[in-house]
């Protein structure tokens, strides 16, 4: 995939987070997108995508057509602004995943079957 460099936002990062189900990926997207970027020097977009073999490593994929990967794309004016924005995103992501782990039925079922 070739990405054109945006002269106004030359620093970029794409984070792909594989999740167990498309429903969980969608829930994470909806939970995280409500917080807008505070700085006009940073742009962020979310989407869900279908996994590919090189995106999920050794994980076993049951339905590779399902959009189970949360993709977050960042663009920023400087590396520092990118780092600050991504650090904030990681904090929010940690909270969202913690809630999903504690409360979501699919995650609880997976934990029980592992045990």
Write a short abstract of this structure:
This protein is of the alpha+beta class and 115 residues long.
CATH domain class: Alpha Beta
Could you give the order of the helices and strands?
A: EHEHEHH
* Unreliable parts: none
Rg on CA atoms, Å: 16 Å
At the fourth level of CATH, the homologous superfamily is Alpha-D-phosphohexomutase, C-terminal domain
What's the count of strands?
3
The rough form would be described as: globular
Query: End-to-end distance, in Å?
Result: 40 Å
Helix content: 40-55%
GO cellular component, one term: EKC/KEOPS complex
Family: Belongs to the CTAG/PCC1 family.
Protein name: Transcription factor Pcc1
Organism: Mollisia scopiformis (Conifer needle endophyte fungus)
